[in-house]
What does this fold into?
Amino acid sequence: MPRSPLRSPRPSIDLSKHLMLMRGYSQHPAAEETLADIPTQLCSEVLFGNDAPLELEIGSGKGLFLKTASETTPEHNFLGIEIVHKYAKHTAARLSKAQRENARIISGDAGPLVADRIPDGSLEAVHVYFPDPWWKKRHRKRRVVNESSVQNFLRKLRPGGRFHFWTDVLDYFESTVEMIAAVTPEFGVPIPEQKKQSTHDLDYRTHFERRSRQNQIPVYRVRYEKRG
Ligand SMILES: C[S@@+](CC[C@H](N)C(=O)[O-])C[C@H]1O[C@@H](n2cnc3c(N)ncnc32)[C@H](O)[C@@H]1O
It folds into this structure.
């Protein structure tokens, strides 16, 4: 999908409190030695030094969701995982400039991080907005919402925890709803989420939501709540 060009954050911006790096992962430049390593346990206590509920976003892009949600819900912590390093860095710079104490981002691949480092039953919510569709059938297994990831989301969420999934790709939406009913029935019925009227230019959940609305592309929005 075409993306708008992204400027690198000014070197004077301190990213060390907001950006963590999955080392050994090929997409990051070798020079990022000053960044924090990823802790073995990704939980509120280790990441933020408190026990506030932790919400996870996978594929944060330019970080609008993390920046807005960490402001509107200051009693929760927010962790983003973004595989493209320059986007993770851009998001970290936004969070740093906004002085967010309750949001951080990891530059790395969500698959293994969610599976191996997030304690079971610990998450308040998982957010996946406008994941890359991987149109070709042989590439479908690269989708971040797939049979194995939804089982991980279910395992990592606390009872009552939420999984939000929005996309503008009808096939991705329909096949995911069908797959969740078959693979993770503990998620219960899909709950439709409503489009909110925006009151200013950045009043959208994510940049891709803004882009879809501006181009009048329909968006399919759903939430699941893990049964207790
Ligand atoms: C189409 S963009 C949507 C960005 C943002 N959620 C939005 O709605 O504006 C999908 C994002 O997911 C990221 N992504 C893809 N695979 C990922 C993975 N395995 N782990 C983390 N991020 C991933 C991409 O780099 C990209 O930034």
